[in-house]
Design brief:
The chain has 281 residues and is mainly alpha-helical. It folds into three domains: 100 residues, no CATH class; 99 residues, no CATH class; 46 residues, no CATH class. The chain is 32% helix and 5% strand. It is built from eleven helices and four strands. The relative contact order is 0.09.
């Protein structure tokens, strides 16, 4: 009956809030992305020929955006696929008549950015018992907003003043990711990336569309050590296998050192010294 309540005993409640575009691979490839509400969130920037910002990367289907009619009619994704195929053939010099036009997304039925922010606020910030926003790394909303490092490092909670200072300005999701480990678990952010971005927006007083998503890095999908061991190293890695990371901000690679330096210096620092110090004896 209308207005009646029914109580159901349960251990867990799962909420399906929204479908999001699958853009991990195009992001890892370096394609630019933008938040577009009519396409379901962050999507690669494309033209009418399904080309991304990298002209040799074409998209179709869920990575080109999701909306209600597209989810119900697979012909829309097929049309995107045909356009992408024809674009690829044209780039190879194969001239094929193109009759398909790029599909136009549905008009959003609500403010997607505001809806997601409201959901994250209700399910994390205002929730009881501080549920995990990042399930893999067990990071809560207060830990993300306070930029708290992982609990196994033995941190002490930040005071309210420092938490407020951390939330001012435009937050960087990758900095948050590195400091808190949110989005760094086995799922690599697939469960929580959008939630973390929305949470950062709430903390900074910004809209979801104004917050970038934490970046994906190859290999995108988790690999076993056996799989990683089968990947061939480049000749450059083999020639300098003990220092191929090339991190000049941390140390000077041995092949850039001259003489017997007592302290490793950055290449630019070494250039400023006519007579760098040497070990004696």
């Amino acid at each position: 009956m209308h207005g009646s309540l029914k109580e159901i005993e349960c251990d867990t409640v799962l909420l399906g809030v929204a479908a999001i575009p699958a853009i991990e691979l195009v992001e890892a490839a370096g394609c630019s992305t933008t938040f577009k509400a009519d396409r379901g969130g962050h999507v690669p920037d494309t033209d009418s020929a399904q080309r991304t910002s990298l002209p040799f990367v074409l998209v179709a289907g869920d990575c080109a955006g999701v909306w209600a009619s597209k989810s119900l009619d697979d012909n829309i994704a097929r049309r995107e696929g045909r356009i992408a195929a024809q674009t690829a053939l044209a780039a190879l010099g194969v001239d094929i008549a193109q009759n398909d036009t790029a599909p136009v997304p549905d008009e959003p039925v609500c403010d997607i950015a505001a809806s997601r922010a409201a959901w994250v606020r209700a399910s994390t910030v205002h929730a009881q018992n501080q549920p995990f926003v990042c399930l893999c790394e067990e990071v809560t909303a207060s830990e993300i907003l306070g930029l708290q490092p992982p609990r196994y490092l033995g941190w002490t909670p930040a005071d309210a003043g420092s938490q407020s200072a951390m939330q001012n300005g435009s937050p960087n999701p990758d900095v948050t990711k590195r400091l808190t480990r949110a989005c760094m678990g086995p799922c690599q952010g697939r469960r929580c990336r959008e939630q973390v971005a929305a949470l950062l927006g709430i903390g900074a007083g910004l809209s979801v569309e104004d917050i970038a998503l934490a970046s994906f890095r190859p290999p995108v999908r988790p690999l076993s050590l056996q799989q990683a061991g089968q990947i061939e190293e480049t000749p450059q890695m083999r020639s300098r296998w003990d220092a191929w990371f090339d991190m000049p901000s941390q140390w000077t690679p041995f092949w850039l050192c001259t003489g017997q330096q007592t302290v490793a210096k950055h290449p630019q620092d070494t250039a400023r010294h006519i007579n760098p110090p040497h070990n004696e004896g």
